[in-house]
Known about the structure:
This protein has 216 residues and is α/β, with parallel strands linked by helices. 52% of the residues lie in helices and 14% in strands. Helix 4 packs across helix 6, helix 8 packs across helix 10 and helix 8 packs across helix 11.
Amino acid sequence: xxxxxxxxxxxxxxLVRAGIGLILKPLADVEIVGEAGNGREAVELTVRLRPDVVxxxxxxxxxxxxxxxREIRVLAPASTxxxxxxxxxxxxxxxxxxxxxxxxxxxxxxxDELERAVRVAAAGEAFLTPSITRxxxxxxxxxxxxxxxxxxxxxxDREREVLVLVAQGLSNVAIGEQLWITEGTVKTxxxxxxxxxxxxxxxxxxxxxxxxxxxx
Length: 216
């Protein structure tokens, strides 16, 4: 039997932490290893407990969620960070993206979306809801990266196919099924795509596809 996904919940609102706990605790493949009420505590617990996934509120006391994200990426790079946000915080979301967040989850997300986000993040894949994607794109100047087409031109036809499906939110398994290739081959393609594009994670690469107009 596979080891459960070890999750750390970091939010200064006790009710939010309790609500997330109520959703995740019954899941057989998830184990909540700790809770943090401020950004500094989130960093310290992540370093000590080494969770697979950290659910981290963007706005935290003592140390902001964005600052905590940056420290976690350096001190515990194996821990994947999903940022908890509310609708309208796109400025923070954009900064978190550049800081290495693997995805973003609205605090009022549906139960199944929270469960899927944790599993997707634990698998090393990106999680970006359409509403968050739209917020980020709306904040970016239309001329902020005029060479986006040139960046994507370095990809092979197959790599472009894979990247478009990544941008549509498909998992590696789903991409493999659609393209009739193995999950391992998908992972290899994604790794090469990130290297060629100079992107730290799938979220950053997916945004390039959206900005190029290759997906709606």
